[in-house]
Amino acid sequence: MKKTLKTLDVKIFKGLHDPIPDYLKIIEKEIGDCESLLDVGCGGFSPLKDLNKKLKRSVGVDGFKPSIDKAIERKTHSENKVINVLELTKHFKDKSFDVIVALDLIEHLTKEEGNKLLEDFEKIAKKKIIIFTPNGFVPQGEYDGNTYQVHKSGWGFKEMQKKGFKVYGLNGLKVLRGEYAKVKFKPEALWERISYGSKLLTKLMPSASYQILAVKSL
């Protein structure tokens, strides 16, 4: 009986059992024939690791040295650098990467800093800018001794559209999740599946999604 229920669960809630999340599938498609990638705020466990294998050059940068040490250990990128993400233009030339990707980064900056970051991205990227972030402000404190993990701003669906990005709504309805993208209600297993099912609604109303993937073609 348990085996049968598990089989049904995998069939009905396939995405919950898929090791590759939806946003990575979209990123892979959007990267297309790009040959060079800059992963800004890469952390120690960048999910881009497997995608980077298809690129001629991938560079990961982060302001937190222990994260870069871990990235080097995992061989996430062909190059890894400890850099203040607000000083990218001091280290990289204009139009030096086909695509810039920033996953769960911009919300850790103030609005002023975030807007500067986007301006710097447009200088350094040749083809595309890809941003993954919560849809609007979601509170989060520091952890693992990393003060950079605090959320300082929110970037919403409509706001990113106005900035010229194509925006995808992801991870179900925003009202169902909170800090660290965890479901707000118990039992978690049930509400994870309700959240998964709510992706049908967010396809029609992506502005109501918990997270967004914003892509700008240059």
Structure commentary:
With 218 residues, the chain is an alpha/beta fold. The protein has a single domain, classed as 3-Layer(aba) Sandwich (Rossmann fold), CATH 3.40.50. Helices cover 34% and strands 22% of the residues. The chain has helices at residues 2-12, 14-17, 22-31, 49-52, 65-74, 111-124, 157-162, 188-197, 199-204; strands at 36-40, 57-62, 79-82, 97-103, 125-134, 166-173, 209-217. A 7-stranded mixed β-sheet has the order 3-2-1-4-5-7-6. The termini are far apart.
Strand tally is 7
Question: CATH H-level name... which superfamily?
Answer: Vaccinia Virus protein VP39
Number of domain units: 1
CATH T-level fold name: Rossmann fold
Q: If classified by CATH, what would the architecture be?
A: 3-Layer(aba) Sandwich
**What value does the Rg take, in angstroms?**
18 Å
Mean pLDDT: 91
Strand content: 15-25%
What is the percent of helical residues? Answer: 25-40%
Shape: globular
Q: What is the topology, as strand order, of the major beta sheet?
A: 3-2-1-4-5-7-6
Just give the CATH class: Alpha Beta
Written as H for each helix and E for each strand, in order along the chain, the element string is HHHEHEHEEHEHEHHE
The largest pleated sheet is described as: 7 strands, mixed
Instruction: List unreliable stretches of 5+ residues.
Output: none
Category from helices, strands and their pairing: alpha/beta
Report, as a whole number of angstroms, the end-to-end distance: 53 Å
Number of alpha- plus pi-helical segments: 9
